[in-house]
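Side project, low priority. Logging it here so it doesn't get lost.
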Amino acid sequence: MSLGIAEEVVRVYSKSGFKPAKLREIEMQRLLAKRRDVEPADMAYACADLRDKEQTFIGLDKALADKAGGLEVVKIVPSLDPWRSDPRYLDLTASDFVRRGCSSQSEPAIRTCCRCSTL
């Protein structure tokens, strides 16, 4: 999430609470997506926070189609808990891309830390 979006979400949250802040976050992410690439998984997770099942799965499907790195955490995002038994979730987590740790390579990607060159 960009700093500008985060600041706006904080402002809305302080005035109106969680749901209006999340709705504003989603709205601003959609506007930003018209100008540049945004992480589709982030939008899906925001929709999940609002318990919007259909928009969540639309976002997750887009994230998978885009091979988005944000899917690395899909198995541990708490707001997805109610839908872990949904066939769409099971298909997503069974996909080769997610099973390989969101790497387009046949082997899992080796991650490095900027400080020590290993993780």
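Brief comment: Residues 18-33 form the longest helix (16 residues).
Revisit when time allows.
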